[in-house]
Amino acid sequence: MPPNQIQYSEKYFDDVYEYRHVVLPSDIAALLPKGRLLSENEWRGIGVQQSRGWVHYAIHKPEPHIMLFRRPKNYQQNQGIAIQAQQANGMVQVQ
Q1: In whole angstroms, what is the distance from residue 20 CA to residue 50 CA?
Q2: What is the dihedral of CA 71, 76, 82, 85, to 10 degrees?
Q3: Averaged in consecutive runs of 10 residues, what is the pLDDT profile of the chain (95 residues)?
Q4: In sequence order, what are the residues at sequence separation of 6 or more whose Cβ sits closer than 8 angstroms to the Cβ of residue 80?
Q5: How far apart are CA 94 and CA 3, in angstroms?
Q6: Residue 22 — φ and ψ, nearest 5°?
């Protein structure tokens, strides 16, 4: 991995969730708080960039520089359906 570059895994799945892990370079990993998960605003604040719905769900103590994320399977598809339903009910205006 090039220095100072965040590395993103491909997605992997089980029956309920899709997962990915993010490997942080040492200078960014040093900014992580010890022993707690980060909120979306916090992980975005250190430079992690992902689409919506991802949650930092676990810490792998032997490798704290690797952030573990998950979100419900088909999250993006389900979000699109919800927005279409809101538009059909006049709850969201299309611009």
Answers
A1: 10
A2: -170
A3: 81 95 95 93 95 94 95 76 53 53
A4: none
A5: 43
A6: -125, 125
